[in-house]
Amino acid sequence: MAAQSKSRLSLKLLLFVAMLVPVAIMLTRAYEGITAQPLLPQSAVPLWALGLHGGASVLFLVLGGMQVLPGFRRDHRALHQRMGRVMIAVSLVGALSGIWITLAWPAISGPVLYWGRLLAGVFWLVALMLAVQAIRKRDFATHGRWMLRAYGLALTAGTLPFLLLPFMAVFGEGHLLMEETLQVAGWVVNIWLIEKLAGPPRRKMPVLA
Q1: Domain ranges in the chain?
Q2: Are the beta carbons of 134 and 88 closer than 8 angstroms?
Q3: What confidence tens digit (pLDDT) does each residue in 126-159 have?
Q4: Which terminus of the chain has fewer Cβ atoms in its 10 Å neighbourhood, N or C?
Q5: Which of 194, 166, 162, 160 is nearest to 180 (CA)?
Q6: Which residues contact 142 (CB under 8 A, 6 or more apart)?
């Protein structure tokens, strides 16, 4: 049990560190918008569209990071519920805007990344719908697992550097197919990490007559 607790704590710390990456990117983009001084590689997607998607996703990540703090849901149930409603709303904006950007500006993605982004966006929406359906049935365990899966998909910008930067350090830039494959693999890795964090599904106790 102690080893399992340490493992989950390590995963939470990893997710927290990964969350700092998209937060830093959004703050940098905001600085670029205010000062008109580019600091990051520029995209064909307008800054306002990136801000819509990134801002909603980052807010979802920050609020979600608070939700997984030890004892938060137990000690602050009312706040947890209010934050949960906001999380679902901004997560929905993040998922829909991600799909919209992929469709509206297809040139920003190669074929692997294009379909990877669409599939991830659709799965993100499905995870949110199933989370809402579960909470309406007061199935809190299932609700939490689906929200964690949506969280993992939103966190890809945070875990991507751990996959992409080592590859680029060894092989350099210009390997588009492999770089896009690694980006798609980031979603798979995130879901795996989230499943490890969530642990095995709890068995429902039979209702005795």
Answers
A1: 2-198
A2: no
A3: 999 999 999 999 998 898 889 888 988 888 777 7
A4: C
A5: 160
A6: 130, 131, 134
Nearest to 94 by CA among 144, 136, 156: 156
As given in the structure block, the two tokens for residue 122 are 């659709």
pLDDT in tens, 66-84: 776 656 677 777 887 888 8
In this structure, the number of other CB atoms found within 10 A of the CB of residue 80 comes to: 15
Q: What is the pLDDT of residues 20-58, one digit of tens each?
A: 777 777 788 777 778 877 777 777 888 888 889 988 988
Closest CA to 114 of 105, 127, 123: 105
User: How far is it, in rounded angstroms, from Cα 108 to Cα 99?
Assistant: 13
